[in-house]
Amino acid sequence: xxxxxSQSIPADRETVFDTMLSADALRSCIPGCEVLEEAGxxxxxxxMTVGAGAVxxxxxxxxxxxxxxxxxxxxxxxxxxxxxxxMRGDGVVRLSEAAGATTVDVDGQVQVSGVVARVxxxxxxxxxKSLLGRFFECMAAKAKAA
Length: 146
Prior knowledge:
The chain is α+β, with helices and mostly antiparallel strands. A 7-stranded antiparallel β-sheet has the order 1-7-6-5-4-3-2.
C-alpha cells in the first residue's frame, strides 16, 4: 500500500527536523506507542499497539534512519512483528520551509501481512492516514513549543 501525506507545521525547518528525531517527542506522538528506545545505530526500538477496525495488535518494531540530509530529508525503514501479523514500511520524509512554516511530505510503501491484513485490508488506508494525522498534529504542537 502506498502512503502519502503532507502537513504544514508552524515552525522553522531545523526545529521541525530536530523534533521529528527526538526520542521524547516520538515516544509521546506515535499513536499507540508503549515503548520507544534509541538503538545504537541511530534508529529506534518500538513497541506499539495499532489496529484496523476491531482487529488490534501489539507490534515490536525496529526503525532505522538513513540518507539523513539535515534538515531537509531522511529515509525511514520500519520492520515489525506482532500477534496480528507483520509489517514493513519504507519511505522518505522531506521538509521544506516557506513563510515561517515547514511542510513535511511523506512518501512511502507499507506491506502488512497476517490477520490485520486479511480482516482490515479495506480499512488500512484510512487507518494509516488517521495515524499520520494524529502523529503530525502532536509533532506540530511539540515543534511550536520548542
